[in-house]
Request: fold
Amino acid sequence: MRNPEQTIGNMADKLKTAFIASVDENGYPNVKAMLQPRKREGIKVFYFTTNMSSIRVSQYLRNDKACVYFCDSRFFRGVMLRGTMEVLTDPESKGMIWQEGDTQYYSEGVTDPDYCVLRFTAVSGRFYSNFRSEEFNVD
Reply:
């Protein structure tokens, strides 16, 4: 992959679905489809919205190991990023990615106690395209 930042960044920005994975209390991976990240910092940090009451949040609070997968089925390529997931509930983080219309999920608005932010920080990844995979580190 010539330019991982551009290739992966474009996938994260254009694909409407991302898949996040957590580890359950028995050590098994759990995967969930999510709406695309609301914000990203290069390919190192990604921000998602979710419910504080979700199973995934309780799993990340116990074990922050995580991965995010973006799949471009049109070109049969994908990227898995490995790293950690933090659960953020501070007003600044919640306000940073809040969007008009989010009240359909969080009726009390940006201060809704069930609204939180997931911040994924990547350390490495694996990119698949053209029938081959390659590992890379994220700086």
